[in-house]
Amino acid sequence: MCAKPYRSRACSTGSNLSLAIVTPPLKIALAQINPTVGAIDANAQLIRQIMSSVGDDVDLLIFPECALPGYPAQDLLLNPRFIADTQSALQSLAAGTGPTAVIVGTVREEEGHLYNSAALLQNGAVAGYRDKTLLPTYDVFDEARYFTPASDNRPLPVDLPSGKRIVLGLHICEDMWDDRYAAQVCRQLTEAGAELLVNISASPFRDGIAQERHAIMIQKAADGNVPYLYCNLVGGQDELVFDGRSALVSPDGRVVKQAAAFDSGLLHITLPDDLAGSGQVQPPQREVDLMAAIELGIADYFGKTGHARAIIGLSGGIDSSLVAALAAAALGPAHVTGVIMPSVYNAAASAEDAAKVAGALGIEALQLPIESLRLETMQQLAPHFDGSRPGVAEENLQARLRGLLLMALANKRGALVLSTGNKTEIALGYATLYGDMAGALGPIGDLTKPDVYALARAVNERAGKPVIPDSVLTKTPSAELRENQTDPFDYDHIAPLVEQLISDPDSAQRLIAQGYDRKEITSLSKMITAAEYKRRQAALTIRVTGKAFGAGRRYPVVNAYE
Amino acid sequence: MCAKPYRSRACSTGSNLSLAIVTPPLKIALAQINPTVGAIDANAQLIRQIMSSVGDDVDLLIFPECALPGYPAQDLLLNPRFIADTQSALQSLAAGTGPTAVIVGTVREEEGHLYNSAALLQNGAVAGYRDKTLLPTYDVFDEARYFTPASDNRPLPVDLPSGKRIVLGLHICEDMWDDRYAAQVCRQLTEAGAELLVNISASPFRDGIAQERHAIMIQKAADGNVPYLYCNLVGGQDELVFDGRSALVSPDGRVVKQAAAFDSGLLHITLPDDLAGSGQVQPPQREVDLMAAIELGIADYFGKTGHARAIIGLSGGIDSSLVAALAAAALGPAHVTGVIMPSVYNAAASAEDAAKVAGALGIEALQLPIESLRLETMQQLAPHFDGSRPGVAEENLQARLRGLLLMALANKRGALVLSTGNKTEIALGYATLYGDMAGALGPIGDLTKPDVYALARAVNERAGKPVIPDSVLTKTPSAELRENQTDPFDYDHIAPLVEQLISDPDSAQRLIAQGYDRKEITSLSKMITAAEYKRRQAALTIRVTGKAFGAGRRYPVVNAYE
């Protein structure tokens, strides 16, 4: 039956499918792989292994967008040798193909133009290309910097090993997200006779993306009355985490089969048989997704840069406790070190909580009190501080001494420091540059403070025990950089406001119109703008929302707009 | 006479000019202004003042590209309120106009599309727009992220106060740099009857740009056989410095009049009279240009963010000496503090040289030895360093202690730290993150090591005395972070290689083909790639070459390409 009749259309469940799909059954594998940007040979080897493992068992084997060069390769794409190397690796892959039709995401140059392309490899050769039409150039995406849009987006006829011919509506990632564009690629493809829509993607995770993708795929499948195949990358690349979730959507609007989220693997599909499936795809669980995204982001950043060990400053607060828990899950507890660095301003309970977290996670805990260093630094600076009242200078230097000690340990051990700032703090500039902002990667830099708590609870739930103790979950947040300091924010109140101000540049006026205090909204907006210079030097932040700090949000530092 | 006959064409010197230009003479002013990004009201006020000072004395008053919102406004352009505010400021400017035709660079929204636009204001109203056709989306430019290309680039007829009508070939910045595009905007304009080509620009300085602009303008003027008017922004904005040099080019291919470089001002032009001028425009002097660009970049970063005081770690080396000299020139010596922070590894001569530089520049010099702090830090870390041999950890912590002290002084005094790394070091990662890389702005981060020496000599020449002493110019470069350390590079040999590897991604193969040692080139390439993670957290670097680190060079951190 039609579970989600997005259009008023008779249930078809494959009844209108072309003969090529119906008989004999069409066997497809979606190869949801985790390539590394720039590792052309290793990526080719990965593709070759899967080709070889699949053998002649499938008619059609599909790899994601830019599976060969990795995505996003950024300015590597401006290097003619990089393009030539990619093209030559593709030829070599093609040489190893037999009757199975293999679709591989790649890049190709023709007459001085570069295309983001899907190559069809078969019987020892490259049998054709289809290029990407819609080039996302917003948020984290810069495709107009590199690529020329497709000039040909006709469907691609493919001769199957069975002797049948199937007409593929092959398109690439953004080509299905056509809301903001004039061109409607999927409709053009099905109107021109595509029997199967095939999308290869490098679509990064963000909170809610799985549901949005489902809705689009369902709409496109129903619109064209054809099955929709979706093959997405998986893995972490700098700020981005690709979540996989390759899928088959039936023409009657059901996600009938889906690959794992945040893990590589092959999704085998038989058409039309699988279209009759129940479509019971697990709905995504928000906190589980966020945890998995961050953990994959950490694991791949370390793995792909050749690092194994993480160093984290453990304050006993919620942020560093959560980062330690996520890092322990991503890298293994034996590869994570928590460093406890109290000064005179830290409550004894803080160090105790930090030690408890380390103990519960099974990570190494080092004690490195900074009080003597703080005193020595203050003494050195005293002649130049001229008896002025203690302020931000005195507070920041404590955070910077901690950053210095963490970096020294990391340098000594070949480890990487994880910074522990959350999105709300980083937005408001409530963080010390070169201090607690120091680090190679900021795992929770795209989580609001309330989401930090939500994930901490999810971590405990997954562990089946309070690895992050109640005392950490319930204490009043504090940077503990001066006597009796607590964070000057009611996070439950301001975090959602800050999130709106970040994700929607026009939200200030709307919030005021909704009755929020103009002075408060203006003050928060000003703090966000004023902290831009800090964020320019922040660690890479793993992106898990639609608007993260980093490449997707480009504000001038010199910015007089209010 | 034809000084530079770029085309085989009879000398015309205005002989083919339209009646509107010839009689009565056409009086034009190019307003080379220095607006601030986001400061819509202040920018409007600046424009209004110039409109009012010019009064009815000119027929045509021209302001640069995006003079009203500032350039580049980046993601401020995604805020509908920012666009509305800009449009409303433009209406208000228009309301103040009389018979003088005023061209103002702005942005405008129409039917959901945003345009980078030139508005014609006259007789109290906006009389028309011409939008930018070619939207640069490479290097530091992201215009495809924001703007839609012009759909109409016909010439714009303007009724002059004299009653005559002149047909303007109005176009915007990139529209004249059409080498890489299919559209040839200037030719379209002149073929459609433009009597005068008018380009409003926000064209940032880079070494050699003045000569390139001259060549293009000469070509366009000659090609259309019309005078070419060029009105460029001036001022610093984050990494970019706009150099002005607004100009008039005659149809016979001579730059007959040019406004100052790196300074705001009005360039008055009378046509056709000025076309008969000698065209003796001062050729740019490389080191003078580089100094001026960096000094304007410093001055505007401080001025536009509301800071006055700079703090610089003075090592006695060439890099920090040059930064101190440039900062003293940009901000005034009374606003610059040099901090001398020796450890046991610093030669006595280094501190003496640093003090000499401070004395010669007339800047404050503070002494803040770090030896006791270094010892205390080493003692704290000893239990965790396990008797391992001293290495990068021990070296980096010295640089980080210095960074910490500089930041503490800056925090206490409301000053900004200037980082002192040069491009060659930053390329190779020979710099300490959170140490000597700490700072709000990196004035010489786009200067190769040899250019640092060249500018130091130019500074001395300008001063008429050795403000940077010979001993600094001649000593062997050293980070002085361990016993008898000197920099492990022959900078004269490697700096040009590194510069090529940065500016041309394909140069590695070419250099090897030219006979350079494959091992050396490969090693340098790997160092450049491996240091990407540091550069992501580097201070903003003032861009003075065609390929600077920062927004114009976007490489993945996780990058396995070799």
What is the element layout, followed by pairings?
Two copies of one chain form a homodimer.
Chain A: H1 19-22, E1 26-32, H2 40-54, E2 60-62, H3 80-95, E3 101-110, E4 113-122, E5 125-131, E6 156-159, E7 165-172, H4 185-191, E8 196-201, H5 209-224, E9 228-232, E10 234-237, E11 240-243, E12 247-249, E13 255-258, E14 265-271, H6 286-305, E15 310-313, H7 318-331, E16 336-340, H8 348-361, E17 364-367, H9 371-385, H10 392-413, E18 416-417, H11 423-428, E19 441-442, H12 449-463, H13 470-474, H14 491-503, H15 507-513, H16 518-530, H17 532-535, E20 540-541
Parallel strand pairs in A: 1-2, 2-3, 7-8, 8-9, 15-16, 15-18, 16-17, 19-20
Antiparallel strand pairs in A: 1-14, 3-4, 4-5, 6-7, 9-12, 10-11, 12-13
Helix pairs in contact in A: 2-3, 6-7, 6-12, 7-8, 7-12, 9-10, 14-16
Report on the structure:
The structure is a homodimer. The first copy, chain A, is an alpha/beta fold. Chain A has 2 domains: about 25-275, Nitrilase/N-carbamoyl-D-aminoacid amidohydrolase, CATH 3.60.110; about 290-540, HUPs (Rossmann fold, 3-Layer(aba) Sandwich). The first copy, chain A, contains 17 helices and 20 strands. Chain A has a 6-stranded mixed sheet. Chain A has a 6-stranded mixed sheet with strand order 6-7-8-9-12-13, with helices on one face. Chain A has a 4-stranded parallel sheet with strand order 17-16-15-18, with helices on both faces. The longest helix of chain A is centred in the C-terminal third of the chain and has 22 residues, at about 390-415. At the A-B interface, helix 3, helix 6, helix 9 and helix 10 of A face helix 3, helix 6, helix 9 and helix 10 of B.
